[in-house]
Amino acid sequence: MRQFIVVGHDAPTTPDFSLDDLPGAGRLDLLARCVTSSLLLSHGIREDVRTHLVLGDTVTVTVDGATVQRLNPDERSTAALVQNALEQRGEAVGHVAVEPSPGVSLRRLGLAETLDVVAGDGQLCVLHEDGTPAPDLAPPTDPVFLLSDHRAFTDAELSLADGHADVRVTLGPERLHADQAITVAHSWLDTEGFGNFHGSL
Amino acid sequence: MRQFIVVGHDAPTTPDFSLDDLPGAGRLDLLARCVTSSLLLSHGIREDVRTHLVLGDTVTVTVDGATVQRLNPDERSTAALVQNALEQRGEAVGHVAVEPSPGVSLRRLGLAETLDVVAGDGQLCVLHEDGTPAPDLAPPTDPVFLLSDHRAFTDAELSLADGHADVRVTLGPERLHADQAITVAHSWLDTEGFGNFHGSL
């Protein structure tokens, strides 16, 4: 399984935002693209992927490729899934999840608690400019990629992550958007051993 | 320079569509993401990239990284740039371009004419599942990548492309969305020789 944890520093933790202005809603456009770039293929879904959006260090919304329904590639409908989840945050008590729609769950967890829950599932790989270049690493088994949104990780977040992290990885010489980094991370793992045979685009 | 030509089979050729339903507007959500994934980095722009959207085999909208302004990462504002260009399509006569906003131009060209104009700038690389795996190829110089939207290329389009094409390329074993394929194509070129040094995410 591949998992992605995306830290949304300015992301909304309540549903009172407009789907007409996702950048103004704490860059929910970017977070929506992180969901779709991690879970969707052309005319298909990556069933072995789970993506966690940590919103404002307060609430974590998880989308599970194995069970999610009605996930479309566009930002607006994906943001609507998040908004719908936030509308039911009142039902989430303690660390118990609510599942407002199939495959979309919400828990009252910040980054520290989300790392406690998820990082042990595999190898935590922090995507960071100071990391080891991916080509120099063996592709991880059951990776849990940790990414930040449009802001850099804070020192406190990096310190938290380092408590769990197996490695810091950098994917290339250019600074990518988080959703682009997810696409490249998938490609890194997909194409391990790729070449010398005919594949599909 | 890197260029991308994206064939939008169902894309609108007039501006009368709603920004609230980009998937319903001939998958303009996907085409908008193709623009942003080709041109935008995190907090930066790829100035050496030009992206051409062929809309309904009738109109081609080109976004030039060297001169475009007000290009934001979200789908809606990018689709609004395309909509604004289409509002001025009446000004485009013959093959002469109009430039409705800085770095965004529109010409009355279908795929055949766009290939005639653009393909000669470099190596035409058709992104296609039957192509040669990228790792088996030397990265092209001044590539012009040709991609299709959510539909497969028609036989007529492939025949047109083959008249110009240097190579068919496949980027991996999974079928990607066109915008994801653009991100991976950039990564292929960005990371040539990457490794054994510290880069940026």
Describe this structure in words.
The structure is a homodimer of 201-residue chains. By secondary structure, chain A is an alpha/beta fold. The first copy, chain A, has a single domain (2-190), classed as SPOUT methyltransferase, trefoil knot domain (Alpha/beta knot, 3-Layer(aba) Sandwich), CATH 3.40.1280. Chain A has helices at residues 28-39, 75-87, 111-118, 155-162, 178-190, and strands at 2-8, 40-41, 44-45, 49-55, 59-64, 98-101, 104-107, 123-133, 143-148, 167-170. In chain A, the strands form two sheets. An eight-stranded mixed sheet of chain A has the order 6-7-5-4-1-9-8-10, sandwiched between helices. The radius of gyration of chain A is 16 Å and the shape is globular. Chains A and B meet through helix 1, strand 2, helix 2, strand 8 and helix 5 of A and helix 1, strand 2, helix 2, strand 8 and helix 5 of B.
What structural keywords apply?
5 helices, two-stranded antiparallel sheet, 201 residues, Alpha/beta knot, homodimer, disordered C terminus
Question: Can I get a quick summary?
Answer:
By secondary structure, the first copy, chain A, is of the alpha/beta class. In chain A, 27% of the residues lie in helices and 26% in strands. Chain A has a single domain, classed as Alpha/beta knot (3-Layer(aba) Sandwich), CATH 3.40.1280.
